[in-house]
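Review form for a predicted model. The reviewer records the input and the model, then writes brief findings.
Reviewer: anonymous (R2)
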Amino acid sequence: MPLRKCLFLKMLLVALCVSLIGCADEHKPEERPVSRVGPAPSFALAWGSLGSGDNQFNQPIGVTADKDGFVYVADSLNDCIKKYKGDGTFVAKWESGSLDDEDSAKPADVAIDGRNGVVYVVELEHHIVEKFSKYGGFMDVWGGAGAGDRQFYFPTGIAVDAAGNVYVADTKNSRIKKMRDDGTPLAKWNGPIESPLLRPEGVAVDASGNVYVADTHNSRVVKFDSQGEVVGVWGQRGEGNGQFYFPCAVAIDPDGYVYVADTYNHRIQKLRTDGTFVARWGTPGNYEDEFNEPRGVAVDSNGNVYVAEAGNHRVQKFTYPGR
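Model under review:
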């Protein structure tokens, strides 16, 4: 073969290889940003998609776990509560016990009384709290639209303490209400005098009776002691560690750490009980470890973290290795 032709073929081969390598680089999967800061839990599994089936959701916005490891989801636009095992296996569902069939319930959050398994549900559009047995049997209903002691206005969050007292984030009344387990009003808290609560959507109680509030429209967390005195105010609007953007839910783990659904930053933050930042995880998206409007967060007795995503219509579970 003539030397000139041989060199031409070699040059053609090199050009082809470079072209192929370039094409391969162009089609590499896009590297997704690091989503973890600090000792955050690892992704374990996810379940759910948009729909009305047993393993589907339509804007789930509340989640909790009982002492036996069952997970309860407020499936808001499917108008029901769904119960699952910790691995996402469907167990049961139930709808409102007090509304007519033509009335949609719009459950916003769910809480469990650890003493007896009684289930409490806040229903957003009817301004009520419904009470069910651990098996889903309807027991009682409280509330109605208004600003009175026995009324709510678009309640969005609920929690139960060790004594069975019930706490409701009475969102558009911008207050937290504390009641006995029969609905008798005990107290109402509006937060710091100089900067009151503004449409709080989440509430949680720790083992010592301290109450943590996701003060949503103030983009902060407010901590109360068991008597309703403000003992901490954390955060402000922003994207930094310990800052929030319309946080919608809060939860406490068995070790006393506080988890905040930092909803419109599309992430979860973990804090100490004094508000010190510990960890965060999540970026906007629909892959594992990513979130689209995380509206609910819960932690079970083993420290597993569950996140209800309104925008992705699913629940993600996260675990700590070795627990």
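Findings: The longest strand covers residues 42-47.
Further findings: The chain has a mean pLDDT of 90.
Recommendation: see findings above.
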